[in-house]
Design goal:
Number of helices of chain A: 16
Radius of gyration of chain A: 30 Å
Number of strands of chain B: 3
Largest sheet of chain A: 8 strands, mixed
Strand content of chain A: 15-25%
Distance between the termini of chain B: 34 Å
Number of helices of chain B: 3
Largest interface: A-B, 54 and 38 residues
Oligomer: heterodimer
Distance between the termini of chain A: 72 Å
Mean pLDDT of chain B: 90
Number of strands of chain A: 16
Low-confidence stretches of chain B: none
Low-confidence stretches of chain A: none
Shape of chain A: elongated
Number of domains of chain A: 3
Helix content of chain A: 40-55%
Strand order of the largest sheet of chain A: 6-7-10-1-11-12-13-14
Order of helices and strands of chain B: HHEHEE
Shape of chain B: flat
Chain lengths: 476, 95
């Protein structure tokens, strides 16, 4: 039987506020354990929450970016459960009246086609702390730095049909929150986390199968693997005549398998009720419009503009707008060098290769946009050839000095002096009488060989156009 | 609405409350009475009434995103029964 998967994603992003959602404690990743855990965050009696203005603004900004309905009145609720890294015994979240309602975003698939994926809602909630179970002589260690950190939980509609679409959706969300500057969204650090709901059904059926939830997925690659492995598992169960049990499973990336987590029998009963310590939050159109005015150009719009303004291919535009940093880098190179196509080629080619090879972020690259633009200018004004450009680029990775200085000090300047080129050409003609004769007999292709010889003699520095022209003239 | 002993046990478990067997019958009776009252309230027609999120007719004030707390870990950890490497230690919890 042919099966079809139905996938929904719940994505948590940590909002990059200075302080926690409900307290004035600093909220910065990587601090010493419990140095960002004060009386409110430890749930000391008598402390009360006050909502962080910035967290609300960021949530609304996200909502506007995905064309969502914005909740003009949002209400916080308590979700009750006991765990040592949740000192209050409840998590404050938004159940019935989230700040962000229905919206959608467009994903681009590998074949270039696009699909719209619905977002059911996005609500503001607080994070729990972290439990460490190893090496504490039979005890668990609790770090509450993360406790109370503001999160936005973004819930997709169950409209995703396979693992690749799920990854495309996740990458688009990642790009959007980073463009909006509301989250670092670094999966490896937990500032973007993803839970996946998966069920399968016979293809063409409209009924939903029993779903399982996969937790503990911390990279784009694992999302794809985890979903494929779960779809296969459910297929095997059903084809063997079994039934899929609704449960939460933990994905083990190393072994590419998942296993059931604790029974949901009790765990799912969170006994939500409105948080009495917080009043409803009300916002008006003026507030919403003021935030709308701060929206940056988003990836889709930027990509479309790169195609129309710079004449890039859809593919290049997509690659160059994947992150805001990359897009800004490219635009600086394009504008300063005056040649968008060359800029795109250098950025997606040599620069990207150097970043990958050295495992650098764009910000860590020794070649920043203005330097790359200068290199392109020197190729365009014939100071160096395109081929020598690659040599200069390699040198620039090691040597932080000025591009012109690198060209000068390493003697890489293109030879355009016609006298010098003439003597090169003469030497080639003398050394290769056989090929010269072949050319004279009408074998055009030999010219390439002869040009190559002259370039080699000049160590790549001769202007290939001039060499070409002079060779032709002399062999006529 | 019927409410039996099993449900009392479930709710007690969720709330991490220990209720002795002797108490269970009494608690079951009392919760059943409360639910009867709720049943009675639910017979009131509230179709035109919006759910009440908070008894105060006010809206939430917001806080500037400024750090107002400083690191008081050493002081706070003196209240804890056991700490190590800056962590609060608790009996081992395994999911």
């Amino acid at each position: 039987m042919e099966w079809e998967a139905v996938i929904g994603l719940e994505v948590h992003v940590s909002l990059s506020t200075n302080t926690k959602l409900f307290s004035g404690t600093a909220s910065i990743f990587g601090a010493e354990p419990n140095t960002e855990a004060n009386i409110f965050d430890l749930a000391m009696p008598g402390t009360l929450p006050v909502l962080n203005k910035e967290a609300l603004r960021m949530a609304v900004k996200f909502g506007l970016a995905i064309d969502a309905e914005i909740g003009k009145r949002s209400v916080f609720d308590r979700k009750n459960y006991f765990y040592p890294d949740l000192p209050k015994g409840y998590q404050v979240t938004q159940l019935d009246f989230p700040t962000v309602g229905k919206g959608s975003l467009t994903i681009t698939l590998e074949d270039g086609s696009e699909r719209q994926i619905g977002v059911t809602r996005a609500h503001i909630e607080e994070n729990a702390g972290k439990s460490l179970h190893e090496d504490f002589h039979g005890m668990s260690g609790i770090d509450l730095n993360r406790s109370g950190e503001p999160l936005l939980e973004i819930v997709s509609e169950p409209e995703i049909r396979n693992a690749k679409e799920a990854v495309a959706y996740l990458k688009k969300l990642h790009a959007i929150v980073r463009y909006l500057d509301i989250s670092d969204a670094i999966m490896a650090q937990g500032s973007m986390r993803c839970d996946v709901n998966v069920s399968i059904r016979p293809k063409g059926s409209t009924e939903l199968g029993t779903r399982t939830e996969l937790k503990n997925i911390n990279s784009f690659r694992f999302v794809e693997k985890a979903i494929n492995s779960e779809i296969q598992r459910q297929q095997d169960v059903l084809e063997d005549g079994g039934t899929v049990i609704q449960e939460t499973r933990r994905y083990d990336a190393e072994r590419d398998t998942s296993s059931p987590m604790r029974s949901k029998e009790f765990a799912n009963d969170y006994r939500y009720f409105p948080e009495p310590d917080l009043l409803p939050v009300e916002i008006d159109d003026t507030y919403i419009e003021a935030i709308r005015a701060t929206l940056p150009e988003l990836p889709d719009a930027k990509s479309a503009r790169f195609v129309s303004e710079y004449g890039l291919s859809d593919y290049d535009a997509g690659v160059l707008t994947a992150t805001r940093e990359m897009a800004e880098y490219f635009e600086t190179v394009a504008r300063s060098s005056g040649d968008a196509k060359m800029a795109a080629n250098w950025v997606t080619g040599d620069l990207q290769a150097a970043l990958n090879k050295n495992n650098w972020d764009l910000a860590e690259s020794p070649i920043q946009a203005e330097r790359l633009a200068r290199l392109i200018q020197r190729i365009k004004d014939d100071t160096i050839s395109g081929k020598i450009g690659k040599t200069v680029f390699e040198a620039m990775l090691e040597d932080g000095s000025d591009v012109d200085q690198i060209i000068e000090s390493r003697g890489l300047k293109q030879v355009t002096d016609s006298g010098a080129i003439e003597s090169l050409v003469d030497e080639v003609i003398t050394n290769h009488p056989e090929q010269v004769q072949q050319f004279r007999d009408g074998k055009e292709a030999v010219l390439g060989f002869l040009v190559g010889q002259a370039m080699k003699l000049s160590q790549g520095k001769a202007n290939p156009g001039q060499v070409n022209q002079l060779l032709r003239e002399k062999m006529q | 609405m019927a409410f039996d002993k099993t449900e009392v046990e479930k709710v007690a478990q969720l709330a991490r409350l220990h209720i002795s067997d002797a108490e269970k019958d009494e608690v079951t009776g009392r919760i059943t009475d409360i639910l009867a009252l709720i049943d009675q309230m639910q017979s009131v027609d509230t179709d035109a009434v919006a759910p009440l999120a908070h008894p105060l007719d006010m809206t939430q004030r917001l806080r500037e995103d400024d750090v107002t707390e400083s690191n008081r870990r050493d002081e706070l950890q003196q209240l804890a029964p056991e700490v190590e490497e800056g962590l609060y230690l608790v009996p081992k919890v395994i999911e």
